[in-house]
Structure formats: structure tokens, C-alpha cells
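Incident log, entry 3
Record: Palmitoyltransferase (452 residues)
Problem: checksum mismatch between cached and fresh output.
Input:
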Amino acid sequence: MESFGPLAVVSATILSVIAVFYIGIMGPSRYHRNGVVGWLYRGMVKLPHACVSCCCCRSGTSGGLFSCFMKTRCGRCFHYLMNERHWGLVILYIILVWPVEIAYLALVAMRLKASLLSKMVSWGLVLFSEVVYFAAVFSDPGTVTSRSEKDAQKRAFATAGGAKPQMKKGHEATRKGEERMQYRKFLLSPRAEEEQGQRYVVDGILYGKDSTRGCGVECPTCNVPRPSRSKHCRMCNRCVRRYDHHCPWINNDVAEGNHRWFLLFLLIHIIECIWGLWDLYTMVVQFLTAQGLWVSAIRFANGYTYRITNIHRLFAIATMHPLVLFLIIFAAPITVVLAVFWLQQMSFVVSNVTINDMNKIDTTIDFITTLPTATDVYEEAQNVRSVLENVAARPPRRLRALKRPSAEAIVVGSKKDKAYRKEVSKMLMSDLKGLFNRGVWNNLKEVMFPYS
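Fresh output:
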């Protein structure tokens, strides 16, 4: 039992960090937003604001106007941090991760008794992970050119070969908004963007369809028809093609243009953490072996045997190499959380769905399965099937087997009624996920080579 204590402390610390990271990343996801994890996430997000409000209320009698001013200021600051686009988490990433990576390279990788190739791999993983990170941060996610920027886009690609034309000073825009558009880098020419916007069919189920023009509904902010699978990001104030989600850690949308870099960023960081943990484990073994602690017991010349426990090993590591222990506690939970998120992302990629797609699928299923009667559910599900037969990349399979509800299922609230709605929900989920599914290989190519 004496060896259980320190291991329990370290394990509890790692598990606690994993839990906090998991709640912070996965809390707002479709899997948890209506459950305990989602409830904890909302509480964690509201906690700073609640603490500020509590402190201001306590000092309200003595602080007077000052406490009200501070409460208002803190509220605005909290709203900005949670609801506006800013570089805060990118800076926090640099402050948290870079010193850890530098410490790992300078104090672990360089001192480790390992081959030159092993050390080169350590350096390569760290450097490549940051290159991929900034590629995700600064890549154009697939911005849809707004109506106000159409003329600037045409001028940018007016010359042969797509080179930007030289503009005389007298022709430069005078208004600030127009000046900003002159220097914006457009990823695609007007024709190429139009072709890219037609890559996915506007189904009219998940993504609204303008019946008069046969294209997506017009975005009220950008004043252009939205391509299928696009979304207007309120934080970035732009429409983005094949929108997945907005990631504050890269201060950018994860979408058509940079989804590959985001996935690679997660994967390389996972590999980097696993490689680093192996280096740390090797260093711990080398240290304990040198100190004579990598044994179960020490036998002295007089025959006395002293048993070596995990307490002794952990105390030796914490005393002589506290940085190593810190790096293990830092890297282990991050590896688990990133791996879970990467696996979730890849499960979507191989099916050619995005987080935004899944949210819309959930909304559609909730609408259909909560209709007044099972007969209404059946008829609406058949309408969905009829549309999918014409537009889905993978024709519906499950809905073809859907039968009319039985007499028992027609009774609202009965067990048969609930079971029927649940079965329809599963069928809709399966077939709606096939709307853009062109097969695993083609789905991977769409993400990794979006403009090929």
C-alpha cells in the first residue's frame, strides 16, 4: 500500500487534467452538449464571469459605482473572449507549448543517451508540428467572396496567368473598406470559385435551396448565394465553404482550405507527444538504473535486504529530475485528448461529413422524429428518401426498408410509437450521412487535396 500513494497522486493529476481538457474540447460537441459533459462545460465557461459578479456583489456596498464599473468592464471582456475572434488562445498556445517543447529538446532530448537519428526525429517532430500549426492558422479556410468584394476579385485576376494588375495611385480606392479589399489575397479566381462552390449539390434538406434560382439561399451578410455545406461564421464574419467548425486555438475556421492542416496538426502533435513520452520513460529508466533504483530490492554485504518501492523511485525523480515528471504530467493527458478528437475528426472525414453537417443532420432528425404522429414521421421520412434518391452521392439504403407504422405505433406516446421513432431516427442518420459520401478514398482526397 505504501507504493500506491504517490502513483495515485500522479495518476489523479493526469486524469484530472484529461477531464478538464476533454470537457473544454468535447463539451460543446453533439455527443455531449445535452449531457453531463455539456453541463460541466457550460458551468466551466460561466465560472469566471460568475466569480467576477460574486466579487463585485460582495464589494457593492463599499465599492459603489466602482464595483458596477468593474462588473460591466469584466462582462464586456468576458463576452469578447468568448464570442469574438481574437488571438488570445494562439498566444496562450505559444506561451504554454513552446517553453515545454524547448525544455524537452534542450534538457531531455539532448541529454538522453540515444542515437543521433533518435534526436533528429525529436527535433524534426517538434519543428514540423509548429510548421503545420501555423499553416492551419494562416491558411485561407475557403472564404466565399462577398458581393462587395467581387469587383476587387475580378481586378486581382484580370491579367493573364492570374497575376494581380498594377494599379495607379489615382485609381486606388479611397474608402477604408475598399482599400482593405485592394490588398486582400484571393485564393481562387471568380470562375474557379464558382466551380468550387458547385462541387456539392444543394440538397434542400440540410442546406436551404432557393427554388427560383436552384442554388443555395443568399447570405444576408455577404449578399451572395451560399454554396452547399458552407456556413457564415459569426466570429470571422464571412461565409466559408465546406465548413467544419471554428477553432479558437488557431483563430481560424476549420474548413475546405485548411482542414488537412488541422488534421495533420493534431496527428503530428499526437506522434510528438508519444515520442516524447517514450524519451521521458527512457530517461527515467536510465536515471533509476544509474542510481541503482531500477530493481525490486537492494541486498547489502551483511545480508540485509532493503525493498525499493515506487515511493522511492518517484521521490528520486521528483527530487533530481522534476522537469521530467512535469513533462510526463503535461504530455500524457494532452496525448489522450488530442487522440480522441483526431479519431472523431477522422471518423467524419471517411464518411465525408463535417461537424456542421452533423449538427444539421441532428436538427433534421429531431424535427422529423418529433412530429405529432408516427404517420407524420413516416411520410416526412419518405419525403427525405425521395430527395436522397435524386441527390445523394450514396443512395439511401435504410429508408428503403421503412414500413408504415402499425396500429399500435400510431398511438401517441405508446412504447411502439417511441420504438418506431427511434428506428426512423437511426435510418435517417445512416442515409443522411451518405449525402456526400463518395467512398473512403475519394472522401480522403477531397479533404487532403481540396482544389485538385
